[in-house]
């Protein structure tokens, strides 16, 4: 476990969903999320994250294999806990599957998965993914109750939702950061690899990146938005530099 919490081990997973969002706004094939995946690989990203939503507002089913074939980077497939998404994950065998909450009316993922309340629904899905050799992650709030549920479900990874931290200010932000640090330490102590993501930017990433137990940050919307002004390669490289400096 020590290699997972070494300060030099922090990985950057880049979520390329919103490249597909722009493509889908007009139809057709441009901009292609596959090209984005290739840029991520060249710019020092450690993995590709993509959320196949029920309504296909981001990537499409046909994108998954193309993204997997485009680079040597591992794919982290974000998915709802449904039979449809389980079948797709088992067919494509991504490196990892991150189970997230999903409501069709939301603009983006709002809050963490209620792993505690949904234990009976999640247990067979987690087991099927694990049996297929897919590394399972649960996207949860940094709360002891949810982390304990992840332990019971035998998830090897949790990704802590950093939205509350990202949107808070002053003492409230400091309190959210302490929660993230405490839960990351507790996860690592119990053999679960902690990741984090949601709402992270150039301005707020370093405090989270400095938490020594966190092994991976998954960042998407901000990087794609910043790429409009600076280019995707430059956006990723700056985020990578800030993360490394924090360690």
Give short descriptive properties of this protein:
TIM Barrel; about 250 residues; about 15% strand; alpha/beta; 8 strands; 8-stranded parallel beta barrel
3D shape: globular
User: CATH homologous superfamily?
Assistant: Aldolase class I
- Pattern of helices and strands: HEHHEHEHEHEHEHHEHEHH
Total helices: the number is 12
CATH fold-type name: TIM Barrel
Task: Specify the structural class.
Answer: alpha/beta
Overview of the structural elements:
α11 (221-230) packs across α12. This protein is an alpha/beta fold and 247 residues long. The protein has one domain (2-246): Alpha-Beta Barrel (TIM Barrel). It has helices at residues 2-5, 17-26, 33-42, 61-70, 83-92, 119-131, 144-152, 163-167, 170-189, 205-209, 221-230, 232-246; strands spanning 11-15, 47-51, 75-79, 96-99, 135-140, 157-161, 193-197, 216-219. Mean pLDDT is 94; it is low at 1-6. The chain is built from twelve helices and eight strands. 43% of the residues are buried.
Per-chain topology:
Blueprint: H1 2-5, E1 11-15, H2 17-26, H3 33-42, E2 47-51, H4 61-70, E3 75-79, H5 83-92, E4 96-99, H6 119-131, E5 135-140, H7 144-152, E6 157-161, H8 163-167, H9 170-189, E7 193-197, H10 205-209, E8 216-219, H11 221-230, H12 232-246
Parallel strand pairs: 1-2, 1-8, 2-3, 3-4, 4-5, 5-6, 6-7, 7-8
Helix pairs in contact: 3-4, 11-12
